[in-house]
Design goal:
By secondary structure, the chain is α/β, with parallel strands linked by helices. The chain has a domain of about 210 residues. Helix content is about 40%, strand content about 15%. The chain has 9 helices and 10 strands. The strands form 2 sheets. An 8-stranded mixed sheet has the order 3-4-10-9-5-8-6-7, sandwiched between helices. Strands 1-2 form a two-stranded antiparallel ribbon. A hairpin with a 2-residue loop joins strand 1 and strand 2. Helix 8 crosses helix 9. The longest helix is centred in the N-terminal third of the chain and has 21 residues.
Amino acid sequence: MELPRAGQKIVLPFLQDGNLIPRVTRLRPQAHSLIILPMNLSSLNMDARRLTERIRLNHAYATPSLSRRPLWPTWRYYAGFLQIVIGAWQDLQNGIFSREDFHKRAVQTLKLVERVGGHVEATGLDRLGILNTSAVLVSNHMSLLETFLIPCFVLPFRPLAVVIKRELLRYPFFGPVLRGLPHIAVSRENPKADYRAVMEQGLQLLQKGHHLLIFPQSTRQIAFSPAEFNSLGAKLAGRAAVPLIPLALQTDLHGIGRWLKDFGPIRPERPVRLAFGPPLEPGPDLRTLHEQSIRFIAKRLMEWHVPVHTLPSLTP
């Protein structure tokens, strides 16, 4: 494929009234690193297969040695992210969005992060491999990146459903893609209705063989606040009699936006980390189960020098 020339008109995504809008612009000299060239399907499928083989063999993942970081990482990232979303949307338009398609787009997101200079590492994947049942995954929540990146490491082992904010379903292209995935939409405005939706729909998804990912924090934030980490995941795990897996995340490479929270600056110098904890079996005391998950996440984040608010009084 021929690279666009300086002065040639191209289409790039711009933010307008809170939405990513494709806009025709003229390519400036030395701006080629802004462009993310589309990957063909055979290449995407091969990348997904290789990653699956790698994490099943090594039970971990780390980005290979990086070359020099490119210029304009934020624009390069969002140009690539828009391509991923539109590609997934086109899959849906064809009536197809299987587990394999979901994983393929997740792997494409991983490669995009690495292409803009980010370093990704994931540990504890052996804990997913040894499970012979569904599980509830609970995690801290930093950025929109997690929605597409976590499936990259979970889907090779089992189908995944995610609890998401209902407002995300209203985004152009991105919303229809999320609606095509196994999900539970919550408003965060009616706690009782949200609780009922997660408990009822979550139980059904777990019984169908899906892992279910829940972000118990009320909003995305860099610092981890245990007091705001609700016990919904522990309650669902107890009701469904499935393990609870804590997941510690550092994804502040994808920053929080000033005007539009989901789309902030990209800082590739900040590492992306995922640490899957041991499966915690639910017992009669769900409070202890909840506290064990908090302990694991808080400990990992402190090891990564991520701010952690004062831990509440936990049961010994």
